[in-house]
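Worked example 2:
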Amino acid sequence: MKITRIKLYIVNVPERKWWWSDDFYGQPSHQRSEHGIAEVETSEGLTGLTQIGRGTPTETMKETLNGWLGQDVLEINLASLATPMVSAFEQVILDLRGQALGLPIWSLLGGRLRDRIFVTQCTGYKTPQHTAEDAQWGWEHGFRAYKMKCITGRETTPEERIRYVADRIEAIHKVLPDMAVRPDIRWRLEEVWVAQELARRLQGHRVESLESPITKRAAGGTFSEWRRLRQTIHLPVGDHVYNSEDLIQRFQAEALDYAIVGGSTAFEAINQSRLAHELGMDGWSQTVAYGPGAAMGLHVAACMPHLTQPYDMVGPMAWENTLVNEDFPFEDGCFLVPDRPGLGYTLNHDAVKKYLVTKQDFE
């Protein structure tokens, strides 16, 4: 089953109002860049769907897609891929194989461990009032966990940074006391004492964890400061791990409660999750993508053994259109894992036409 034709669509879909930032913290360029979506046709009449990573140069897309032509979908070794756009290629190969076998992608990734993915309403920077309004929108649409990016260049002192986080959480809980909140601090509290003071002020609030609270690799990479923080506050601490070596080092340093795993491929991300689970660490992962990429994220999340915390899904409800024909069922704060063959989603050509920037065929 060889790849015979590829259709590349460069699209730009507007975000839902105030999904990322409100007018006060306006960041007009964030997530409003162009994205690549590709349909891949085969000699057997099957069509696969994939999303290309945001920020991939157009010339890289064109050169790489030309290199996909003629490849045999059933002969490619996904364990040894060495190509640009590796995650996009992996996704479409798994989609096509799944369709050919009548199996969903999660079945090809080792089998799902859950049939629904509890997710956060993952958002950006807003005033306390607008944060509460956005959380109210999320609650009404079924979200039960709210993740918010925290601290910008406006907050320059430790007190301003603490207040920015605490004031927003207090605003949420005034109207939604049962909404779990995950502040993503992006390492901007910097020092242990600042994070300790924030944790003190958040006592009594439903805070799921502090994500990335202090300086990366604090104390020269020994993570002793991260350990000291964990030992002195009541809130769990989570952070991104970048590979197996990093994960093991954090574990040995007792630096984390939650590991946020990822990888350049689905198999790599699942392997990191498996390692975290074997080390006794819980955590989560994330997807930031239009519908085609979000669907892949659900397949991967379904197979992650360490996934005990809400998954950060920026996708089906973040932009004004998913670009796919099928729905993303959402129940009790969870996206349901698709069980149709392959990816389980097909491209909505009418929607693509509406948001199309440019199109090119390769054959």
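The chain has two domains: 3-105+344-362, 116-336. DSSP finds eleven helices and 15 strands in the chain.
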